[in-house]
Amino acid sequence: MSSPKIPEFKAEWKEGEAGRWGLAIDMDLCTGCQACVAACSMENNVPFVGEKESGYGRQMAWMRVERLWEGQYPEVKTTPFQPVMCQQCGSAPCEPVCPVFATVHAEAEQLNLQVYNRCVGTRYCANNCPYVVRVFNWADFAINPIHANPDKDGKLVFPLHNQFNPDVTVRRRGVMEKCTFCIQRIHKAEDQAKSENREVVDGDVTPACAQACPADAIIFGRLDDPQSRVSKLSQDKRAVHLLEELGTQPRVSYLSGGSHGNLG
Amino acid sequence: MTDNFSRRDFLKLAGLGAATATILTGCGPASRYVVREPYTKMPEYTYNGQSTFYATTCRECAAACGLVIRTHQGRAIKAEGNPYNPVNLGKTCARGQASLQGLYNPDRIQNPGQHKRGEKTFTDMDWDAAIGVVGKALAGGDFAFLLGTAPDHLFDLAGELSKAYAAAAPLRFSALAVFEARATLGEAARAIFGKPDNLFFDLSNADLVFSFGANFLETWLSPVAYTREFANMRRAKRGYLVQFEPRMSQTAAKADEWIPVRPGTEGLVALALGKLAAEIKGKVLPAFNGVDVAAVAEASGVEQATLERLAQLFAAAERPVALPGGAPLAQSNGLEAGKAILALNAFTSGGVYLTAPAAVNDAYHRPASLKEMAALIERMNAGKIKTLFVHGVNPLFELPRALGFREALEKVPTVISFASFPDETALAADYVFPDHTGLESWGYQRAATGAGQTLISGAQPVIAPFYNTRATADVLLAASAGKLPYADEVAFVQAQVTGLIGAADGFFGAGDLPSFWAQFQQFGGWWTNDAKLSVPETPLLDKALQVEAPPVQGEGEFYLHVFPSPILAEAGANKPWLQEIPDPMTTVMWNSWLEMNPVTADELGLLDDDVVQVISPFGMLEVSVYRYPAIRPDTVAIPFGQGHTAYGRYAEGRGVNPADLLGGDFNSAGDLAFSGLKVQIKKTDKKQTLSRLESKLGVYGIGEKKE
Predict the structure, then answer these.
(1) How many domains does chain B have?
(2) A138 close contact with B: CB closer than 8 A
(3) Using a CB-CB distance cutoff of 8 angstroms, which residues of chain A are in contact with residue B603?
(4) Domain covering A21-255, topology
């Protein structure tokens, strides 16, 4: 363990290991359109919380698009739009603090898992996450009666529940959740590859955010395959990692600056 | 598919489908009529654990993006882009993603009904009675259709029907078309290029883009397609983007330079740039000769040195493109501004292309300008309209109140709405006969821009109708009793696409209608293999173009800049996930706001979340202030999309509708000239906190200045 800030709790991560799945985001292409946020929420049964709760910072979206302002009018500009989701750290600060092992490292996928039925809602993990990407179910937002219509017997009917993705759990109150790299899609692709007696190859898996992205700014793939697009992009000289100095070994690479280096 | 297609074959095919993510068709024309059966006898395409994918068309705007909907045991669970469709090539925007929340919206109108105008609820009717009402209205004559910009097939059908009854041609409009001043764009293109064809702006290969208020990454014309074009431009030579507009939009945030011009002077700036660039290149272009650059610098607030520097860039570029956006065109000088901006494209060939217009383009099948809308309002006021049919558009919300649609509607004896949701116009109607939502419907949409190919994106139902709704086309065909030679909606759509069978350049070919139709459903439409782009000639640039500075309306000190919300656009307000997606620039959720430069706000003593009155000659509203660093100090901006007084639980009573502030003046192309308006801002002692992603300030009261 290189960083003294991280307690000695190693899950399955080994020093220098590239990790299996990774994401690269080209901030020169990202237009901040939020299609990824919508796609992620639709794929992963993420509830919406309403105006008041979102004002208190309780919105449940697994990713957000950040932008900051620089300078003053008329020399004002925004920093490049930056989608931030769980960075799937190789050495994740959220993992060692969980008292019930609900935040664990998956050996197979090299991902940070969130085991919903183990989670008891201490929120230590969210507290320890430097990227603020974990969201907590402060209430049973999806089954709030305001979203329902009574049927003729007075029973509440929730038409929006028809949209739930059967591959993804619907979380209840008191449970922490976060981006999973669309692990349900990874599993589906792995099953498929297994049934065809082959390895999962680059391009087999596309998470919802990358599939929607109109600018194709989000690239997903295998980091342990040096030929994959994401491997190459994460080695690019434009690639940076968020809060790298913490030693968290994030699996998400951000490509900063212009593709020809003429953007600041 | 043939009749002896066995269950075993189907399972094989379905397994294959899942394996390769192939799109299955909806089992051919037999699935036109949906029969509800007990689950012991499940339809073959609703197998446990097996998803089925249907290709259809997104109806959240008129861009004709293709969708592939993943369905699971008869439920639609995820919308993805159709990778075959040349407009969006498998991609979607946030609105397309959230389209399922329209389908499963808890506020949908579930049955046909009638009520006293203005009541919130409807008394249910049965469909036979509803068809009777529509039949009587059609037979009575003097009816008018008011339609949205999507879907096209219904517009075509209403056109034929109006013709058959010798009634006036149907009118279609949408708030987005108003904000983009599409009629002005078309008119300006005709004036410059001499043809009424559709425009295609080739950003992919551009090395310099001058965008005059064109928010092409948000809502302009075909945002998914132009976002892809933008990304291609960035990837290849990293083309340079300059955005001219008074308020930094999300598109301007991606630009390399943002030039905050005074509202209404975009056309002048274009002329000045043209003149300077022509001088640098040593070209003689009479079009730009009549402009005085120093005067333009003075009027627009852009320094002459900046204009000269930008003209240098433009003259040096190999493939420069100039985009005429909505706000410059929606001015009293809009048509002239549009011509000036398009004329900049005359320096090179290959920035702007023309694509052939849709096959059907007669007077009955053409989008209307808002001036024609005003003519309809006049006829309504004069009592010349007995029945008004409304579909796919919400004029009570989308039109400026000053146009007087509300009052005119009261003079129409019968108003029939085909809305899926209880929007303002549906509640002001006598009857509502709900259409299926786009994902339960047949139809097609033509792409006006965004792809070089001639393209018809096909729509098919992805699930059985969720409620007791009926296709408006079917209702009209049943009610018109044999006036038109179509048995139902599907027959009409098939008749419309029949001409494409065996077309030489189609990307699939078929000898007969059933085969063609199966592929039309499977691929989600029909398009040509290759782009049909022609380089326009600019014969009309031998005369000097003139752009007048627009007259200013209103007494106030601030220009009012109204722009469609990038996330909600015109009709997204009833989808809760769109409400909760933060605005890309302000990160505000679930509400409206007024953007004001912090310097101006300091002068007025306004902090974030202070409520102000915005007063125009036509209306007044109260809204919270958002101190926006990237807007001219003499301009304030309000997004359009909120402020519904109906439209369901997620939209109603939320935010304000800036259309209430706008006047009813038109430019010379007949589009609404709304962007020259000036408003007054008055402080109130109220405070209403906006929910924002970026900061908890104001909610917890942390860091707030104490007065």
Answers:
(1) 4
(2) no
(3) none
(4) Alpha-Beta Plaits (3.30.70)
How does DSSP assign chain A, residue by residue?
Answer: ---TTS-S--TT--TT---SEEEEEETTT-----HHHHHHHHHTTPPP--HHHHHTT----S-EEE--EES-TTS-EEPPPEEE-----SS-TTSTT-TTS-EEE-TTT--EEE-TTT-----HHHHH-TT---EE--S-GGG-GGG-EE-TTS-EE-GGGGG--TTSPPP-TT-EE---SSHHHHHHHHHHHHHTTS---TTS---HHHHH-TT--EEEEETT-TTSHHHHHHHSTTEE-TTGGG----SEEEE-S-TTS---
Q: pLDDT digits over B363-401, tens only?
A: 555 667 788 889 999 999 999 999 999 999 999 999 998
In this structure, are B388 and B334 located in the same domain? no
Query: Are residues B445 and B427 located together in one domain of the fold?
Result: no
pLDDT per position as a tens digit, B54-111? 999 999 998 999 999 999 888 999 999 999 999 999 999 999 999 999 999 999 999 9
Q: Considering only CB atoms, which chain B residues are within 8 Å of A170?
A: none
Q: Which of A232, A248, A223, A227 is nearest to A21 (CA)?
A: A223
Question: Are B227 and B340 in a shared domain?
Answer: yes
CATH number of the domain to which B409 belongs: 3.40.50.740
Q: Is residue B647 part of a domain?
A: yes
Q: How far apart are CA A90 and CA A109, in angstroms?
A: 11
- At B593-649, the pLDDT tens digits run 999 999 999 999 999 899 999 999 999 999 999 999 999 999 999 999 999 999 999
Any CB–CB contact under 8 A between A168 and chain B?
A: no
Pairing mode, strands B208-212 and B320-324: parallel
Which residue range is the domain that position B442 belongs to? 7-107+438-527
Asked if the Cβ–Cβ distance from A33 to B217 is below 8 Å, we say: yes
Whether residue B698 is contained in a domain is answered as no
ipTM of this predicted complex?
0.91
Considering B322, B355, B388, which residue would you say is the last residue of a domain? Answer: B355
| B408, B469: one domain | no
Q: How far is CA B224 from the centre of its chain?
A: 12
- The 10s digit of each residue's pLDDT in A47-62 is 999 999 998 889 999 9
In a domain, B351, yes or no: yes
Q: Are residues B461 and B414 in the same domain?
A: no
Separation in Å, CA of B697 to nearest CA in chain A: 10
